[in-house]
Backbone:
């Protein structure tokens, strides 16, 4: 018996993108220190937990990203989970230009840029454990070395736009 293979998709890229857009995600900004010692950061919504022991998370980055080389090679990075009122910050880190302009940040003890005012929902500081090429993205797995959170509600991305989360949690 020959090995099974996937059938060709019965949809186009736009249909797939719109279908994926029906799943709401949180919004993060991921930061690292580039080889030139300058801070690098970008907005990412493809973030997920992997394991509690050891504490692992994953996110993915397009192979065409100008930040790919940095995140393929850095030892550590930080993941900032944005709060519901931070859509403008998410947009700033999604567009070209000086993404750190007018943002309160500093390097942590490991040399990773930490966004002080952006970490209003949560922050995870990670060791760059693994990278897996899949399709047009690279999946990065981070081993969480430090984390913190507070009670701010997260920013949500759904159907191509940012949305505020409800002001309360359900048990």
Residues:
């Amino acid at each position: 018996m020959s090995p099974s293979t996937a059938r060709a998709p019965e949809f186009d890229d736009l249909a797939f993108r719109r279908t994926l857009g029906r799943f709401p995600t949180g919004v993060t900004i991921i930061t690292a220190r580039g080889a030139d010692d300058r801070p690098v950061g970008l907005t990412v919504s493809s973030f997920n937990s992997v394991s509690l022991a050891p504490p692992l998370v994953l996110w993915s980055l397009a192979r065409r990203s100008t930040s790919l080389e940095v995140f393929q090679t850095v030892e550590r990075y930080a993941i900032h989970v944005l709060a519901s009122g931070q859509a403008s910050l998410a947009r700033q880190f999604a567009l070209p230009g000086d993404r750190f302009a007018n943002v309160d940040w500093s390097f942590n003890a490991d040399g990773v840029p930490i966004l002080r005012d952006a970490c209003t929902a949560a922050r995870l500081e990670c060791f760059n454990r693994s990278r897996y090429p899949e399709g047009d993205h690279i999946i990065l797995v981070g081993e969480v070395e430090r984390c913190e959170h507070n009670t701010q509600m997260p920013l949500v991305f759904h159907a191509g736009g940012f949305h505020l989360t409800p002001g309360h949690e359900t048990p």
